[in-house]
TrEMBL record:
Residues 76-310 form the VWFA domain. Pfam families: VWA, VWA_3. This is VWFA domain-containing protein. InterPro entries: Ca_channel_alpha-2/delta, VWF_A, vWFA_dom_sf. It comes from the Bacteria. SMART domains: VWA.
Length: 667
């Protein structure tokens, strides 16, 4: 319990001193200056106007500015390599060795007088042939085994793959020996980060006074061992062995803090191929505690490029990374394409630029440009708003800072592509027409949209119908057209072409007018709204009209009968009616039980006989007192066709002559 309490006290002290330590190292006076470099961010649309449903391209550009050409101080760099057992999987150990040797070559090739290098290989303890004891574990046949948790085993010593002192980077033989140490590293054992950091501190303590100090730390896990005092004058290794705990973490952070207080900056590279081995928050804290920088990668093949970036930073490069763009998508707009790896999330377009490195003595890095495409299904002017680029900047003189820049993307207008809509109308009311009769008709064409790229002409209008029993005659002799100027609408916005239409048969017509036209001489066509109507000749509807008696006695009755051909009207409109008007002449000599004119109504329920609709009406005749006889006639004077709530009236004449009414009944 006492040990755990002291461990937490150590963690608290570390956090309390981080801020003051960071301030000391970030404000330390330097002769060199890296403030001459920066990045800019701008963007906008390639074209400010587009057609509804089409794409408009938006470009974003990151522009580095300036260069660095300064003289750095000599450096002392200690490369710390984790060779614990887990490093044997997924090619991590091989990748770490190759990347480490390449890093050494980079330092050697740019070495100046006074540059120093140290190598530290660690797992359960430091692989430097030094003596140590360990609690709860024993070493046998090259393998660490779990023993009695309260027992202390040892003493042990591990093979030597560490430099005993800082070596001169300008010495080829010393550099080759350091690379041999790396080649001899073997993955085995646990992860004692505290011991490795203490060894790095011991090496850097011998650094020349004018040298800048750096630790480059490669690991694939978390601390599982720490130093718990001594036994017989040698370090005692303790810890869970397989998993980190609060003590291993706090002791590791305490060792980082000690390095920071000595003026060293720590770069930490976490290689996590499973996604569960390295705690990114922890390695971030390690790096920030010592004013360094952390890297978290899943692919060991990325180690080489990461270590080369660290080399450039130590050589006074400035890096911009975590270059993340967020763009809130305005309402009404849709992203139709984006760069690989970008995504739309919670109404925002999110993506990244590649990291930017200003190398000391190098040229200005190249600009980067990406583009995405937007569209809208509605006309209107849209303010595209701003895209925000956030970044992390790091250099060894000024440490790590974060910032953001904005790019105002301007506005864009979406308009409808030039086009037309059209209707064909037959002049008159309702849907009942007479065959072989010319009717006035109108083709009404309306234009919409704007012409953006080139002037547009829509003309050569021609109308046709898909029925051979319809005759269509164009009356308008001109060839009207819509003329669009660039960025303007048409003039005029609508036009009318007059036609005559004739139906050559009776019955139902269901036809589709087809409009052909040209847009800038390119042929087009459209089907207009289908038209449904009925053509009927009422003069052919009455097939017989009779009365049962030609001579009728006074005060007796006779039947008037009528047979009507509906000509298919009720198949077209089952609710239609045919109303027949019958008159009697003269009407002043007789009294009847009905009022003339009589209206007889035929509908779809009227009785049929031999395909004709049959109606009859019984009429009682009585002579008026002053008459002993009367001769009258009956005639049909009018036929109304009622369909769709509209009445179509046809004047008609068909007579029954010489019906005689007498006082006496003739036998």
């Amino acid at each position: 319990m006492k040990r755990r309490f002291m461990a937490w006290i150590g963690v608290l002290l570390i956090f309390m001193t981080i801020c003051s330590g960071f301030y000391y190292f970030s404000t330390k006076a330097k002769a060199a200056d890296t403030s001459s470099v920066s990045i800019g961010f701008n963007g906008g649309v390639v074209k400010s106007k587009g057609y509804v449903g089409n794409d408009i391209e938006v470009k974003l550009r990151l522009t580095p500015t300036g260069s660095i050409n300064v003289t750095r101080s000599p450096v002392s760099v200690v490369l710390v390599v984790d060779s614990s057992g887990s490093m044997s999987s997924n090619g991590k150990m091989t990748a770490a060795k190759n990347a480490a040797k390449n890093l050494i070559d980079s330092f050697k090739n740019s070495a100046k007088s006074g540059d120093k290098l140290g190598i530290v290989d660690f797992d359960t303890f430091i692989n430097d042939n030094s003596t140590f004891y360990i609690k709860g574990f024993y070493y046998q046949n090259g393998t660490w085994n779990k023993g009695n948790s309260s027992s202390i085993y040892g003493p042990y010593s591990l093979p030597n793959n560490c430099t005993q002192n800082l070596i001169d980077l300008t010495s080829s033989s010393a550099v080759n020996n350091a690379k041999t140490y790396i080649d001899n590293m073997v993955a085995s054992g646990g992860t004692n980060m505290e011991a490795a950091l203490n060894k790095a501190k011991a090496l850097l303590d011998s650094s020349p006074s004018g040298n800048d100090k750096y630790v480059v730390f490669i690991t694939d896990g978390m601390p599982t061992f720490y130093i718990n005092g001594t036994k017989n004058g040698y370090p005692l290794v303790d810890g869970p062995g397989s998993q980190p705990d609060n003590t291993t973490k706090s002791e590791t952070l305490s060792a980082v803090q000690t390095l920071a207080q000595s003026g060293a900056k720590v770069f930490v590279v976490g290689v996590d191929t499973t996604g569960a081995d390295v705690d990114k928050t922890f390695i971030d804290l390690m790096a920030s505690t010592a004013s360094g920088k952390s890297y978290y990668i899943s692919n060991p093949s990325a180690l080489n490029s990461i270590l080369q970036e660290i080399f450039r930073i130590i050589n006074l490069a400035v890096t911009y990374d975590n270059l993340t763009v967020e763009y809130p998508i305005p309402s009404g707009l849709t992203i139709t394409s984006m760069p690989a790896g970008w995504r739309v999330e919670n109404g925002k377009l999110i993506g990244t630029f590649n990291p930017v490195t200003f190398e000391n003595g190098g040229t200005t890095p190249a600009s980067q440009e990406v583009s995405f495409k937007i569209t809208s299904n509605s006309e209107g002017i849209y303010n595209l708003g701003k895209a925000t680029l956030t970044f992390r900047r790091y250099d060894t003189l000024n440490g790590e800072t974060t910032g953001s820049v904005e790019a105002n993307l301007g506005q864009v207008e979406f308009v409808r592509m030039p086009g037309i809509s059209a209707t064909f109308q037959i002049v008159g009311s309702g849907n009942i027409y007479v065959p072989n009769t010319q009717y006035d008709a109108k083709l009404i064409i309306s234009a919409f949209g704007k012409s953006l790229d080139i002037p547009t002409v829509i003309n050569n209008f021609a109308l046709a119908v898909n029925d051979s029993y319809i005759a269509l005659q164009k009356i308008t002799t001109t060839n009207p057209s819509f003329n669009y100027a660039v960025d303007l609408g048409p003039t005029p916005t609508s036009l009318t072409i007059d036609y005559k239409i004739t139906f050559l048969r009776e019955g139902t017509f269901n036809f589709t007018p087809i409009l052909s036209y040209s847009i800038n001489s390119a042929p087009n066509s459209m089907n207009l709204t289908p038209i449904n109507l009925f053509v009927i000749d009422a003069t052919n509807m009455i097939k017989s009209f009779s009365i049962t008696k030609k001579i009728i006695s006074d005060n007796s009755s006779a039947n008037i009968s009528i047979k009507v051909d509906d000509l298919g009207l009720f198949s077209y409109d089952s609710s239609a009616k045919i109303k027949v008007y019958i008159e009697m002449n003269p009407s002043d000599k007789l009294n009847t039980n009905v009022t003339f004119p009589i209206q007889l109504v035929v509908d779809s329920t009227t009785r049929q006989q031999n395909g004709l609709r049959v109606l009859s009406k019984t009429i009682t005749f009585k002579l008026k007192p002053s008459f002993t006889s009367a001769t009258v006639s009956f005639n049909i004077s009018q036929i109304d066709i009622i369909s769709g709530g509209v009445t179509y009236t046809t004047a008609y004449e068909k007579k029954i002559n010489n019906v005689v009414v007498k006082k006496a009944i003739l036998r």
